[in-house]
Design a protein that fits this description.
Blueprint (H helix, E strand, L loop, with lengths): L19 H15 L5 E5 L5 E4 L1 H7 L11 H4 L2 H17 L3 E8 L5 E12 L5 E10 L1 H15 L9 H18 L3 E8 L2 H8 L1 H18 L5 E4 L4 E7 L3 H16 L3 E2 L5 E2 L3 E6 L8 H17 L5 E3 L1
Parallel strand pairs: 11-12
Antiparallel strand pairs: 1-2, 1-5, 3-4, 4-5, 6-8, 6-11, 7-8, 9-10
Helix pairs in contact: 7-8, 8-9
């Protein structure tokens, strides 16, 4: 097969292509069209060998399309990518119909490109599948834009923790799941002590440093499954999943000690001591709501403030 031509495989050719010259003309036109669209178009045999690849697919892999013929995904991509592509291929093959979904092409230089792929099985007149036709459109820039918009909508710009709205949305769903399965849960409300004095004495830039330092310590103190967000000026909230009250108190006190041991060092040699007050509440199922849980944690936080700050109190 000519590596520059689109493979023609059919049990019975249509009458208008019976003429060999017309067939060659038709295929040449098809190749011209496919080589001048930006999407990657390719055809695979049932065993996964590439039968055809257009110019865009060759450019993606930085290889002439002719060199791709006869190769498998594993010959062109890392093993995890090849196995990922086979999932969508198998859906189309087993289902016998068109499927589509997002695929990640990891390039030889290590960069990931995100493609929206459409794959469709091709059948002979006898109903036997002879190839899988695929078209993958580069969605990388769009995905990066969507990711950035999501980040802006859900993340506090200064601390890089969840913003108030996103934290509350995730906390609501987490509480619902914990209630359904009767799992332990603990909410920590944290407030930087004397934060206004830091702002008034040293300026807002130093106040921002304090917020970022506390946020970094919170982030480094939690598991991936826990939630943390900045829900007010100097106020943070933490949701510890599958955590009993005693364990939550241990986490909170370690966090308090870590912050107390991490002063802000100014260029002029001054050291600003940071401390934090923490209130803890655990839900009482089945009646507890997120609003009441927040209220109980707030009450415990106010108790910590009244008792002298830099301490942990439980509701």
């Amino acid at each position: 097969m000519n590596s520059n031509s689109f493979p023609h495989i059919s049990a019975k050719s249509p009458s208008f292509l019976d003429d060999e010259h017309a067939l060659r003309t038709h295929q040449a036109l098809l190749v011209t069209v496919l080589d001048n669209i930006r999407a990657c178009v390719y055809m695979k045999a049932p065993d996964g060998r590439y039968l055809y690849a257009n110019r865009a697919f060759g450019e993606l892999l930085q290889r002439p399309p002719a060199q791709l013929i006869g190769l498998h995904d594993e010959d062109l991509f890392p093993p995890d990518a090849g196995s990922h592509f086979r999932l969508l291929d198998a859906q189309a093959t087993v289902g016998g119909c068109k499927v589509e979904g997002m695929e990640v092409f990891r390039l030889p230089d290590g960069r990931d490109r995100f493609y929206w792929s459409v794959k469709m099985p091709l059948f002979t007149d006898k109903g036997e599948m002879y190839a899988l036709l695929g078209m993958s459109t580069d969605m990388t820039e769009r995905k990066h834009l969507e990711d950035e918009l999501l980040r802006l909508a859900t993340t506090d710009d200064l601390t890089r923790l969840s913003n108030r709205r996103h934290f509350l949305e995730r906390a609501e769903s987490t509480l619902s799941r914990s209630r359904r399965y009767n799992e332990p849960l603990a909410l920590l409300m944290c407030d930087i002590d004397f934060f206004k004095n830091i702002n008034d004495t040293f300026g807002h830039a130093v106040g921002d440093q304090a917020l970022c330092k506390v946020a970094d310590i919170i982030r480094g103190s939690l598991r991936d499954t826990d939630l943390a967000g900045r829900i007010g000026g100097e106020e943070f909230a933490i949701l510890l999943v599958q955590t009993e009250l005693d364990s939550a108190h241990e986490v909170a006190d370690r966090l308090r000690q870590s912050i107390e041991a991490s002063p802000i060092d100014l260029d002029d040699g001054q050291h600003i001591l940071l401390t934090i007050s923490i209130g803890i509440a655990t839900p009482s199922y089945p009646m507890e709501t997120l609003a009441t849980l927040l209220q109980h944690a707030d009450q415990a936080l106010y108790a910590a403030k009244r008792q002298g700050r830099n301490r942990v109190c439980m509701a």
